[in-house]
């Protein structure tokens, strides 16, 4: 099977070509972000009518989403941490594999508090964490 997607190690910047690594995110960090959003909702929700109001300062104070990283097993700075969600590199060979993982992850309450959407967008052109080969989407879809 041809490989369309190759993870790029966040630590050594080499391709994870031998399926000796994974894509991972800290669930603890994602939960911390989720809790910050929930706290903002609770602070800024009017108890009488349920409406929410917040300002730019509130939004700027929110933490950044948890970042999905790719690492070789030997490069993984936190390989012993059980608080991470890991997807083995051999399960991410095609763009279609990302669709399957997206469907699977959609039920996780912490997923919206990660940069998964950015990772999906990177499958068009590649990035520092994901190399892409194979056919590119049509140009008229590139703006989406």
Overview of the structural elements:
By secondary structure, the protein is of the alpha+beta class. The protein has one domain (13-134). Helix content is 28%, strand content 15%. It has helices spanning 27-44, 56-60, 95-105, 116-121, and strands at residues 5-7, 21-26, 69-72, 84-88, 130-132. It is elongated, with a radius of gyration of 18 Å. The mean pLDDT is 88.
- Give the percentage of residues in beta strands: 5-15%
Topology as a string of helices (H) and strands (E): EEHHEEHHE
Distance between the termini: 28 Å
Quaternary organisation: single chain
Strand order of the largest sheet: 3-2-4
What is the topological layout?
Blueprint (H helix, E strand, L loop, with lengths): L4 E3 L13 E6 H18 L11 H5 L8 E4 L11 E5 L6 H11 L10 H6 L8 E3 L12
Antiparallel strand pairs: 1-5, 2-3, 2-4
